[in-house]
Amino acid sequence: MKLREYFKSGDAWVWLNAGTVAISLIMVVGILGLIAVRGLSHFWPADVMQATYTDFDGSKTVIVGELYDERIDTAQRLREAGVELPKEVETVTRYSIKVGNRDITGADFKWVFADRLADVGYPEDIVALERYEWGAFFGRLKDVKESGTVVASGENAWDALNARIERSNGLLAEIVGIEKGEVGRINYGLEKLRLEEKRLALAGQLTDADRARIADARAALEKEYDGLRQRLEKLSAETDRDSAVFVLADGSEKEIPVNKMVHAIKPNAMSVFGKLGAYFHNLWSFLSGDPREANTEGGVFPAIFGTVLMVLMMTVIVTPLGVIAAIYLREYASQGIVTQVVRIAVNNLAGVPSIVYGVFGLGFFVYFLGGNIDRLFYPESSPAPVFGTPGLLWASITLALLTLPVVIVATEEGLARIPRALKEGSLALGATKAETLWRVVLPMATPSIMTGVILAIARAAGEVAPLMLVGVVKLAPTLPLDMNAPFLHLERKFMHLGFHIYDVGFQSPNVEAARPLVYATAFLLVLVVAALNLSAVGLRNRLREKYKALES
Fold it and tell me: What is the CATH superfamily name and number for domain 301-551?
C-alpha cells in the first residue's frame, strides 16, 4: 500500500525524470570527454621511447617511437591469429608503438609484446620530425649540410637545423603565397580572356580589334607569369639548399632535405613549459593550416572556412523564406483545410532523411537549374560546367531547403503566442495590418524566430550526407572566397568539417595514424554546434525578457 501511495503521490515520476536527465547528461559529458581527450591529447608532444625488443626467434632489434596504445589480449586469440606462444601464457599485454619513418619501414606503427621489451629508456638526443610527406620521423641528428657540405655537427647541429627549418618554412610560405595569390590571379585572368574570346566567337562578334586586345592582355599576363616563374624557381632552389643527416635506430643513416620538415623537437629534453608551448603551436597549426597527406595530417582551416561560409549563406537564404512563409500561414492565409494540409506537409518535411534532400538538390538544382544557367549564360564554357556541377551555391540552397521547416515551425509558434489583444489594440489606434505586423508582431516573435534560425544553423553545420552530392569535396584547391572578382565564387566546391571527419575516418589510406585527427575534428565540430545551440537559448531568453512586459 505504501508503494502504491508513493507512486500516486507523483514523487516516483519526479525521481524517474530526474534520473533520466542525469543519465543523459552523464552520457553527453562522457562522449564529449572521450572525444576531447582522444583528440586534444594528439597535439601534446609525447616522449619518445627507445627499447630493445626480443622476437620469438631470438633476434633483437632496437625500437624507437612513441607509446601509442596498449591492449590486453587472450593468448587463445593470438594463437588463432598464428602467433606462437608458450602454453602457460593466458593473457598477453601488447603495445602499439608509433615508430614513424614510414618511407623506410613501410608502416607508422608496430605492435610488440610488453614482456619482450628490455632496456627501456627515453634518451634526450632523439629528434622527432614532423614532415610534409611520409609522416613522423624519429632519429638522432648527426650533421647539417648546406649545398652538400657539412656546416654543423654534434651539439651545434641542433641550433643550425632549427634555424634552417625556420628559413625553409619562410621560403615555402612565400612560394605558396605567390602561387595562390599572384599566379592564381594570372591564371584566373587568362581563363577569363579565353572565355571572352570564345563567347564573342560564338556570338559572331569577334573582330580583329577584339583579337588584338585579347592578345595584348594575354601577352601581358604571360610576361608577368614568366617573371613570377623565374622568381619561384629561384625560391625553390633556395629551399633545396639545406639537408640534415640522422642516425636511425638500427645504426643506418638517412639524409632528409630541410624543405621536407615542418618542425623538429627533442621531446625527451623538453620541460613542461616547453611542451606546453609546442602543444599550443600544434593546436594553432591544426586550426589554421591546410591538410596534408590525404587529409591525415596538417590542419583543417579550409574545412572550417567552408563550413562557416556555407552556413552563413544558408542562413541568408532560409531566414527570409521561413519567416515570410510562417507569417503568411499564420496571419494571412485562411485557416481551412488547405492551410492545415500545408502545415502537415511542412512538419513531414522536417522528418525527411537528409540524403533525400541531397538527391533532390543534385537532380533539380545542379542538373536542371545549373545546366540551364550554363546553356543560357555560359555557353562559352561548354563542355566544362560552371553552375551545372555541385558547388557552394547549390549546397547552401539544399541545406536551406532542409532547414526551412524548422524556421517555419518555430516562427509560427512564436506568432501564435502573441496575445490577440495587442494586435487589436494596434489596429484600433489606426495602424494598418502591415504596420502592426512590423512594429508589434515581429518584435515579439523575434525570440522564436531567432531560436528557429540558430537551431537550423546548428543542424546544417553537422549535415554530411546531402553535401556529399551537392558541393563538398575531399580537398578543394582554392577557397570559394578570394581577391579575384567577383570575390565570392558560388560555383566552386568547398570543404566541410563533417565530410572531413568521414573522409579521414573511413576513406583514409592510413586510418590508424589519422584516428587522433578524427577525434580532434569531431570535437571541433561538436563545439561549433554546441555553441550555436547555447547561443540560441541565451538569445531567446534575453529577447523573451525584453518583450515580457508587452505580453503581460
Answer: MetI-like (1.10.3720.10)
